[in-house]
Design brief:
Largest sheet: 6 strands, parallel
Strand order of the largest sheet: 3-2-1-9-10-11
Distance between the termini: 17 Å
CATH architecture of the largest domain: 3-Layer(aba) Sandwich
Strand content: 15-25%
Radius of gyration: 19 Å
Structural class: alpha/beta
CATH topology of the largest domain: Rossmann fold
Number of strands: 11
Number of helices: 11
Helix content: 25-40%
Bound molecules: zinc ion
Oligomer: single chain
Number of domains: 3
Order of helices and strands: HEHHHHHHEHEEEHEEEHEEEH
Length: 251
């Protein structure tokens, strides 16, 4: 059978943590804005890089352009969980997986049924008024009736509503960081998927995994090489949805 080593490692593990990046959602049709294609598109249409447009400074100074880019490129309302999301939800349900730590902001893990999800970079599904801190869902900020030139405005106080997404130049939520590190440090298996482990500080979290302990397994599943390949016990270069779907058995 394919991926037997991964299957066996999952069978003997009971505290699996999954650490994932953009590659987990590409099979759901969510483009990676950091990809060559995403970069090219941003330069063509806006004359700027995604990193610049998704910075805290840009949000302050060019709020209209921020929301234009954000809504067109980071929101995929029709995206649905793929086999990777479903497999991870199933592993949690049967008591094998303790947490998903993700760099993605699309909420697809929760949509698939995962309960313990640490979203290092926040979520497009949550939005908060910068004035009165009232919360709004994604539908609300996408509804042009609630926007002025594409910028969502809080009806309660008139302030701009900001997505609960960590922008460049902002720090990650400290609770989220410590809970993620705690889960990783207690794990007996760490599966890293769909990330080339280049986005810091998130990528450094992997170092908290106690790889040296007996029976512990580090598995890396990614389409291309990553910065941690040499440390992996199991290395698979294939689409994460295909791999986890096959191993865990989800449709
Ligand atoms: Zn408000």
């Amino acid at each position: 059978m394919k991926y037997d080593n991964l299957r066996e490692a999952i069978e003997k593990s009971s505290k699996i943590v999954f650490f994932g990046g953009a590659g987990v959602s590409t099979e759901s049709g969510i483009p990676d804005f950091r990809s060559a294609n995403g970069l090219y598109h941003a330069k063509q249409e806006y004359g700027r890089s995604p990193e610049e447009m998704l910075s805290a400074r840009f949000f302050e100074t060019e709020t209209e352009t921020f929301f234009d880019y954000y809504k067109k490129n980071l929101i995929a309302k029709d995206a649905r969980p793929n086999k990777a999301h479903k497999a991870l939800a199933k592993l949690e349900e049967i008591g094998k997986l303790t947490a998903v730590v993700t760099q993605n902001i699309d909420g697809l893990h929760q949509m698939a049924g995962s309960k313990k999800v640490y979203e290092l970079h926040g979520s497009v599904l949550r939005n908060t008024c910068r004035g009165c801190r009232k919360h709004y869902d994604l539908d609300f900020i996408l509804d042009e009736k609630n926007c002025v030139k594409g910028v969502p405005i809080c009806p309660a106080c008139g302030s701009v509503i900001k997505p609960d997404v960590v922008l460049y130049g902002e720090s990650l939520d400290s609770n989220c960081i410590s809970q993620s590190i705690d889960a990783i440090s207690r794990a007996d298996m760490l599966i890293i998927g769909g990330t080339s482990l280049v986005v810091y500080p998130a990528a450094s979290f992997v170092d908290y995994f106690n790889k040296g302990a007996a029976g512990h397994t580090l598995a890396l599943i990614n389409m291309s090489a990553t910065a941690q390949d040499e440390w992996a016990d199991i290395l698979i270069n294939a689409p994460i949805g295909e791999v986890l779907g096959e191993v865990v058995g989800v449709e």
